[in-house]
Amino acid sequence: MTIVVRTLAERIFEVIRERIVEGKLPEREPVRQDALAAELGVSKIPLREALARLEHEGLLTSQANRGWFVRPMSADQAEEIYLLRLAIEPAAVAFACQHITDADKVAALDAFKLLDAAANDDLNAVAVRNREFHVALVRPGGRLLTTQLVERLEVLAERYVLAHLAPAGRGDRAHLEHQALLDAWLAGQSDAVQALLTQHIASTLDDLRAHFAASHTQ
C-alpha cells in the first residue's frame, strides 16, 4: 500500500484551485489573504506557498505590493491551452495505449466511472474528474515529462471544461466521445485513439471559440 503524505501547502493549493475553477474567487480582484488564512485556519506561510504555486500553474497572477489575482479566462488562453493539448495529448495517449497493463485498464475504467458519476451529480467536480480521466490514458506510456505536461494543461483547462459543458447536451456528447475513446484505448487501437482524441479536443476548442465570440458581442 502506498501512503501519500500531502503538505499543508498542497492541501491549501487544492482548496483554492477548486474555488478558482468553480468561480468562487472573483477575477481581477485581489485574493484576500488575511480572510482566506482565517477561514482555512492556517498561517500565511503555507498560504503564500500555495498561491505562488497557483501562479506558477497559470491560475493566478501577481502584482508588486498588491498580491495575487485570479487570472481571467480568455479566448487567447483557451486557444493556447487547447492547441498545446492537440500537439501533445493525442500522440501521447496513442503511444500509451500500446503499453497498458491490467492495472492501467482498471485505473482508466475507474476514472471514467468517477467522471460519469460527477457528470450526473456534481458538475463542479467534473473538471477534476475529466483531468483524472485524461491523465489516466497518458500515464501508461511511462513518459514522465509528457504526463506532467498533459496534467498541467488539464489543470489549466478545468475552468474551460466547465464553460464548455454549460450548454444543454454537451455533457451527453462528451460522455459518448469519452466512451469511444476509452474503448479504442482498451483495445490498443492507437490510430483510432489518436483520431478520436484529436476530434474530441478540436470540437471542444471550436465550442469555446463560439462561446467567447458570443460573449464578446454581448
UniProtKB/TrEMBL annotation:
Record-annotated HTH gntR-type domain positions:
6-73
Q: Does the keyword Transcription apply?
A: yes
**Which keywords annotate this record?**
DNA-binding, Transcription, Transcription regulation
Matches recorded under Gene3D superfamilies: GntR ligand-binding domain-like, Winged helix-like DNA-binding domain superfamily/Winged helix DNA-binding domain
A Pfam match: GntR
- What name does this protein carry? GntR family transcriptional regulator
Organism, by scientific name, is Sphingobium rhizovicinum
